[in-house]
Amino acid sequence: MSPFAGGPSQSGHTRFPSLHEFVLLIALVMSLGSLSIDNLLPAFGPIQSDFGIADPNDLQMLITAYMVPFAVMQTVYGPVSDTIGRRPTLMIGLAVYLMGGFIAATAMSFDMLLIGRAVQGAGLAATRVLTVAIIRDRFAGREMARVLSITMMVFIIVPMLAPASGSLLLLLGTWRMIFATILGFAVLVAVWFSIRMPETLHPEYRRPFSFDQIASAVKVTVSTRVSIGYATGVALMMGCLMAYIGSAQQIFETEVYGLGALFPLVFGCIAAFMGAASFTNARLVQRLGMRRLSHIGLCGFTLVAAVQLGVALLYGGRPPLLLFAAIFALNQFLYSLTVPNFNSIAMAPLAAIAGTASSFIGSYTTLVGALFGFFIGRSFNGTVVPLSAGYLCLGVACLAVVLWTERGQLSLRSEPDEGGDEQAVPIAAE
Fold first, then answer.
1. CB-neighbour burial class of residue 422 (10 A; exposed 0-12, middle 13-18, buried 19+)
2. Are 83 and 208 in contact (CB under 8 A)?
3. Where do transmembrane segments lie in this chain (predicted)?
């Protein structure tokens, strides 16, 4: 029977939510991260004006200041959750996030705003680790990929709507209202999670907190070729996404296309393609397999990135909006066929150390992705060439890493079922 059919939890007292409620709740927890980034994009201009920032590229620090602590703190939350459980660890992270949001909302200088953003990122790192670990606690293999894709499909609604809601809040007040509204939403999500989501950590997987055990789990993760290979693939692909998020406001709203108030519409349409890809992935992954679907997606992504760069160069860095948006939306579709499956493949052998493994993989992929995104974003020169070149370079690098991981073979045909318990990496007795 499905563990979400209303049966008792491991404690015997709490009932699990239905699959639909589980997906919605996990998606909303995930969405706090997107809201904290995408909702703020329309506020870059007012923030620049309020604090007298001369170089618009400096505003990308609002993303980087959030992402670096978000990456680093994941190494803490995973091991802690393997010791005290997923629920209390997530609640601690949300409390830190709320504190950071208050600092940001009341900041009187740009430096203090960056400190608030850093505290926010440090708190929300818990959501990145624990949503994946909770899904891995309940599912394995293709079923995990399917549930993760459905979750991402719901989650993707947030970046579709976030810039528009941010723009609306700016009409009603200042950029500080954006932080206040997100804080209220975070409180609602925290209350819902605390009431409805039971502990998912299996008792036999509970591990005492010790640096030796953390080092042992990290060693297992790094030495598992499939896990570290696909995690590196996720990191490179995330670099593309971070570069896009950092540059999107300058590309669409101000310096390249000058869309102004129409920026949220274009941003949301591109996000809709990512949502469509998540829906497609959820429908196809159990039939085609994670490797086949993600390898096709990666090959397509790299090819389209080459076309994207060629078009950018052909038009002197400023191709027609509809042409560029169409090519870019297609690439974001292919991105979303790739990354969720890469995550699931990386986590499949690591059930016994899901919390620590998820924290290490999450920290590694986020930090590497944020750094690549930062350097690509900072190279913005008033055209779409740096972003397009970054997509192609990272796509080629990702393809090379996957080929190394799979020993030179790409799975473009159907493969046997992946991710069953028989593929779990054994953990040496402590």
1. exposed
2. yes
3. 22-47, 59-77, 89-108, 114-135, 147-171, 177-195, 228-245, 257-281, 293-315, 321-338, 350-377, 383-404
Q: Which residue has the tokens 């796509």?
A: 395
DSSP 255: S
**Contact yes or no for 33/162 (Cβ under 8 A):** no
Domain for residue 173, yes or no? yes
For the record, the structure tokens of 380 come out as 């913005």
Q: What is the crossing angle of helices 290-314 and 141-155, to 10°?
A: 40
Tell me what pLDDT residue 12 has.
44
* Contact of 330 with 112, CB cutoff 8 Å: no
| Nearest one of 156, 147, 161 to 276, comparing CA atoms | 156
Question: What's phi and psi for 108, nearest 5 deg?
Answer: -105, 0
Provide φ and ψ at 223, rounded to 5°: -85, -5
Q: Are 67 and 351 in contact (CB under 8 A)?
A: no
User: Measured at the alpha carbon of residue 290, what is the angle toward residues 6 and 391, in degrees to the nearest 5?
Assistant: 120
What is the span of the domain harbouring residue 358? Answer: 19-195+209-413
Banded model confidence at residue 423, pLDDT cuts 50, 70, 90: very low
Q: What percentage of residues in the chain have a pLDDT greater than 70?
A: 88
Helix (H/G/I), strand (E/B), else coil: 191: helix
DSSP-based three-state secondary structure for 93:
helix
Q: Reduced to 3 states, what is the DSSP secondary structure of residue 15?
A: strand
Statement: residue 2 has pLDDT above 50: no
Residue the block writes with tokens 């990512």: 274
Whether 201 maps to a domain, the answer reads no
pLDDT band at 262 (very low <50, low <70, confident <90, very high): confident
- Is 191 domain-assigned? yes
Q: Which residues contact 156 (CB under 8 A, 6 or more apart)?
A: 271, 272, 274, 275, 278, 336
At 219, which CATH number?
1.20.1250.20
Distance of CA 108 to the CA centre of its chain: 30
DSSP code string of 126-166: HHHHHHHHHHHHH--HHHHHHHHHHHHHHHTHHHHHHHHHH
Tell me what pLDDT residue 168 has.
Answer: 84
Report the predicted TM-score, pTM, of the whole model to 2 decimal places: 0.76
Continuous H helices in 321-424: 321-347, 354-378, 385-405
* pLDDT for 11: 41
The radius of gyration of the chain from alpha carbons, rounded to an integer in Å, stands at: 21
Enter the tokens of residue 185: 């939403």
CB 118 within 8 A of CB 65: yes
Q: Has residue 7 been placed in a domain?
A: no
Positive or negative: CA dihedral 10, 188, 276, 237: negative
